Prior knowledge:
This protein is of the alpha+beta class. It has two domains: 2-62; 95-131. The protein has two helices and five strands. The protein has helices spanning 11-61, 64-80; strands spanning 2-4, 7-9, 93-94, 108-115, 119-126. The protein has a three-stranded antiparallel β-sheet, with no helix packed on it. It has a two-stranded antiparallel sheet with strand order 1-2. The longest helix is centred in the first third of the chain and has 51 residues, at 11-61. The termini are far apart.
Amino acid sequence: xxxxxxxxxxxxxxxxxxxxxxxxxxxxxxxxxxxxxxxxxxxxxxxxxxxxxxxxxxxxxxxxxxxxxxxxxxxxxxxxxxxxxxxxxxxxxxxxxxxxxxxxxxxxxxxxxxxxxxxxxxxxxxxxxxxxxxxxx
Length: 137
């Protein structure tokens, strides 16, 4: 039950007040529909204009992602000193250490390779061993 100033209000009055409140809310929404619709049309027009500008830019200037990829490859080749037709990776330079086995078949040969002055690769080659059954590891 609803109370106002300490006095009870009849349930029918509170129901009518609730109905009136929801009716006013729906009426306000209906009155605002043209405003909401106008905002939505404006947003749709902005999206369409952006899509059309993107299509024009791609037609006029080419694919920006492909151009960026080609530019990156060109810079990498220039930094590596390679010819434009070659790959951007520089030649691997093995170290002067001889490849000496260090024990059983489970141990490998360690070799350090320096690529493009900054990347150090350590490689361990494992020998293949034959089991008595003839299976290789």
